[in-house]
Amino acid sequence: MADQIIFYILGAIIAIFSILAVTSKRIIRSATYLLFVLLATAGIYLLLGYNYLFAVQIAVYAGGVMVLFIFAILLTNRPGENVKTELPVRRVAAGLTALAGVAFCGHVIYWNIKKVSTLVAQSDLTPQQLGHTMMGTDKYQYLLPFETISILLLACIVGAIMIARKR
Amino acid sequence: MGDLLTNLLAGPVPIEAYLGVSLIMFFAGVYGFLSRRSMLMILISIELMLNAADINFVVFNRYLFPGHLEGFYFTLFTIAIAACETAVAIAIIINIYRNLTSVEVGNLDQMKE
């Protein structure tokens, strides 16, 4: 029962703040609402039992990406200026697209998913299990994507410095 | 009334509830992507969409594949990729701001000479 209450609180936070983030007139407020959405998403990962993912989400997203966003916003905007929005026709079309998408995907979910899901209790993931799975080379183990991500990170560091350096 | 609430809240959270939350987050991102002119707002909408997809992966892993870890690791790598992509996108936006003093997508209409 505590699971359900916590889920409803986190779900309400995510729904309300994500809608506020995309309809707010000031961009710093959007960034703050996005931060709350990311923290609530980390809470959902913890509720489902994945504590490593909870820590990674907070460290990378709430701690890294949001700092990048705040820097970028403060470097490129005059504070207090409102966010420009598209023409009203385009906004209405965007709203209709989003609502149509919600209706379609919502129908698919509520029609199909109930038939196939169960929730079995699962023991916590131990660090040994995580380590073996991330660094192993057997069938369901992830050493190759891990190394590929490290090359991607290197490429992004070099690329970002090259693009944004002072001429 | 207390009995009603306790009966209503018994049992595990149904999977459709998690998917409904990620649905709202995803289409809020779609609306923000299509209706905003500032590049940083568009990036914020992209982050919302990516996080909604991550919640879906994790929920499917937990409910439909209890012993496996594929969804968990996919989400982990998606978080890393999204962070890289945001860093490079923000570097590009800062470069654009240096040249054009504006981050509106409507102003980006000329190729380099």
Q: How would you describe this protein?
A:
The complex is a heterodimer of chains A (167) and B (113). Chain A has two domains: 2-125, NADH-ubiquinone/plastoquinone oxidoreductase chain 6, subunit NuoJ (Four Helix Bundle (Hemerythrin (Met), subunit A)), CATH 1.20.120; 126-167. In chain A, 75% of the residues lie in helices and 0% in strands. Chain A has six helices and no strands. The termini of chain A are far apart. The mean pLDDT of chain A is 89. Chain B has 113 residues and is an all-alpha fold. Helix content of chain B is 75%, strand content 0%. Chain B is built from four helices and no strands. In chain B, α2 (15-35) runs antiparallel to α3 (39-64) and α3 runs antiparallel to α4 (70-100). The radius of gyration of chain B is 20 Å and the shape is elongated. The relative contact order of chain B is 0.11. Classes of the chains: A mainly alpha (167), B mainly alpha (113). At the A-B interface, α1, α2, α3, α4 and α6 of A face α2, α3 and α4 of B.
